């Protein structure tokens, strides 16, 4: 039952936001009493903490599944961006990430710290792959570009409250990042993906 509550809460938090959803909402959606939820979670913060851990795990499993398809480095970036777009497609104007940061800053900080090392590692592997494929220039300082892209993406998420606005700017950031690294072949591949995913 505990795992079912975490799974349902995660789904609802992502769709409607961490602040918006109450324990009553989760109980109602699951057709169980609020008392049953409190049997496993003494308060909403504990449930949010467990839910964000589940989402974190699911996101990285999905990224690994995209990487396993062995797309070229540029298409891989667009596929992963599309994955995030679908996963975090909120029906509220205020994104779940923004609500988590505003109302549960300690949980947000813990999630952020976990994401940093994993995302940096993924950015690094993508750049190495693109260089090998001849899509990115060989003279790139990989560590600098990892930092550049990390700062770009996380700055957008930190400073944008609207999910639609964040997605629009993230696409521009991906184009900017790719153009900065791309060889002439990489530019052709970028243009192809911009038409496909725009």
Automatic annotation (TrEMBL):
PROSITE patterns for this protein: HTH_TETR_2
Entry keyword set: DNA-binding
PANTHER family: ACREF/ENVCD OPERON REPRESSOR-RELATED, ACREF_ENVCD OPERON REPRESSOR-RELATED
Protein name as it appears in the record: TetR family transcriptional regulator
Record's keyword annotation contains DNA-binding: yes
Transmembrane segments: none
Gene3D superfamilies for the chain: Tetracycline Repressor, domain 2 (1.10.357.10)
HTH tetR-type domain boundaries: 1-59
Pfam families: TetR_N (PF00440)
Residues of the DNA-binding region: 22-41
InterPro entries in UniProt: Homeodomain-like_sf, HTH-type_Tx_Regulator, HTH_TetR
Domain of life: Bacteria
């Amino acid at each position: 039952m505990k795992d079912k509550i975490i799974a349902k809460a995660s789904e609802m938090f992502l769709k409607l936001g961490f602040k918006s959803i109450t324990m009553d909402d989760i109980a109602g959606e699951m057709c169980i009493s609020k008392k049953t939820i409190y049997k496993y979670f003494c308060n909403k913060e504990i449930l949010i903490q467990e839910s964000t851990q589940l989402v974190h795990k699911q996101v990285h499993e999905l990224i690994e599944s995209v990487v396993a398809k062995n797309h070229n480095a540029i298409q891989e970036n667009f596929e992963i961006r599309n994955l995030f777009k679908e996963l975090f497609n909120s029906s509220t104007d205020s994104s779940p990430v923004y609500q988590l940061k505003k109302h549960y800053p300690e949980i947000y900080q813990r999630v952020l710290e976990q994401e940093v090392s994993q995302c940096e590692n993924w950015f690094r592997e993508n750049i190495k792959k693109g260089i090998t494929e001849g899509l990115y220039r060989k003279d790139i300082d990989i560590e600098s570009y990892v930092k550049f892209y990390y700062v770009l993406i996380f700055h957008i998420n930190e400073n944008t409250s609207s999910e639609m606005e964040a997605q629009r700017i993230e696409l521009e950031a991906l184009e900017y990042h790719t153009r900065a690294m791309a060889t002439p072949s990489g530019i052709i591949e970028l243009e192809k993906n911009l038409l496909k995913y725009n």
